[in-house]
Recover the amino acids of this structure.
């Protein structure tokens, strides 16, 4: 994949001050087509069926190893995202939307600087018909004590007509979504929207911002999107000094997440409970 063709064509527009941006031309059309082709040929994305509650999510996904593309995206965004995030118990309002939590857990305290994308993986999703993604906040991914993700990149892989649905919509924080309210149909809940109309366009935002994927208008214009995460590395000297019990709680929490991802739900529940007993602040 090319790594420089679209570099000079990027245009960044701030959606919310310091927390969300729309980027025109993050990828070029050739890169978009190649990523889409990888999902079709290597992972058979068009042959997959949707899983789970379709009220919340109607799409199929592929996880692709794309090291060259990941590196190209990183090179293009690294100077445009927050260069330092300093988290304390008193400055959470400066980073509204950073986390889903209403406050900052102690083990986030410290000085964080951007370090790269999540390994070499890029997730590609395909939606058709009434495809959508219900209102949610993204979870952060934790690699170790000093490395975790703070930013989501959602990028569009095809050109689509404005008005055919599929926009990324940022929503009011206190929205409650139940039953027939999934997906969101009232514009009063929408603070901002980014149309999925141009291949190569992307939206970059803090995980904690409430958002959804607008339902598609018809089967005629399917939506292709890729997703990647930006992780930050903390200066160890700025990290809080955790007690032995708190360190053990975080170790058990990692085991719980691994068990859940492996489908070992019973074990995961036991481990989550143990972690929360060791450190109740983790139960958020």
């Amino acid at each position: 994949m090319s790594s420089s063709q679209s570099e000079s064509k990027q245009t960044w527009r701030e959606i919310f001050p310091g927390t969300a941006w729309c980027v025109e031309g993050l990828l070029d059309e050739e890169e978009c087509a190649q990523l889409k082709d990888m999902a079709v040929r290597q992972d058979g994305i068009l042959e997959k069926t949707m899983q789970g509650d379709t009220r919340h999510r109607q799409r199929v996904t592929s996880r692709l190893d794309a090291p060259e593309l990941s590196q190209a995206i990183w090179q293009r965004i690294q100077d445009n995202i927050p260069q330092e995030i300093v988290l304390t118990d008193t400055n959470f309002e400066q980073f509204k939307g950073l986390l889903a939590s209403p406050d900052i857990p102690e083990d986030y305290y410290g000085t964080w600087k951007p370090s790269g994308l999540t390994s070499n993986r890029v997730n590609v999703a395909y939606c058709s018909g009434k495809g959508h993604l219900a209102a949610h906040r993204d979870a952060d991914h934790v690699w170790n004590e000093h490395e975790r993700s703070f930013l989501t990149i959602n990028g569009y892989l095809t050109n689509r007509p404005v008005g055919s649905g599929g926009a990324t919509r940022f929503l009011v924080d206190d929205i409650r979504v139940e039953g027939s309210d999934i997906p969101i149909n009232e514009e009063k809940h929408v603070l901002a929207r980014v149309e999925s109309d141009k291949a190569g366009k992307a939206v970059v935002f803090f995980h904690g911002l409430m958002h959804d994927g607008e339902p598609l208008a018809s089967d005629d214009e399917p939506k292709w999107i890729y997703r990647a995460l930006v992780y930050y590395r903390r200066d160890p000297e700025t990290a809080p000094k955790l007690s032995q019990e708190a360190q053990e709680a975080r170790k058990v929490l990692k085991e719980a997440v691994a068990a859940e991802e492996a489908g070992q739900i019973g074990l995961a529940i036991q481990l989550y409970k143990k972690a929360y007993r060791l450190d109740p602040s983790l139960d958020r």
Remarks:
- The longest helix spans residues 244-261.
- The longest strand covers residues 223-234.
- The mean pLDDT is 84.
- Helices lie at 29-41, 67-77, 244-261, 265-278.
